[in-house]
User: Fold this.
Amino acid sequence: QVQLVESGGGLVQAGGSLRLSCACAASGRPFSSYAMGWFRQAPGKEREFVAGISQSGGRYYGDSVKGRFTISRDNAKNTVYLQMDSLKPEDTAVYYCAARGLSASLRVTEYDYWGQGTQVTVSS
Assistant:
């Protein structure tokens, strides 16, 4: 069983930065054995892949955030981060952290565990 809790969302002006954190409480297997992902969902839109990081540290990004967002993990702290720079109004969404017991994936349906989400609002 895995519990995920996101934090760090808020209101920021366009061009600004935010860092999201996702704390993981896992039983039965270590946090380091999970691939982690960040997704987002804007009102009226489908949930979309933002960034992912594999168990070995390989990183993957959605096209709309490449060069602006950075995903990282700290296995000693059971936490995954999403550093978001050069934010745009179109980045406004609820951001979700997710965990997967197999290899990293870009697909929403392939993640087993989800956090409750944190709101990010970027004003123009």
Notes: The longest strand covers residues 18-26. The chain has a mean pLDDT of 97. Residues 23 and 77 are 8 Å apart (CA to CA).
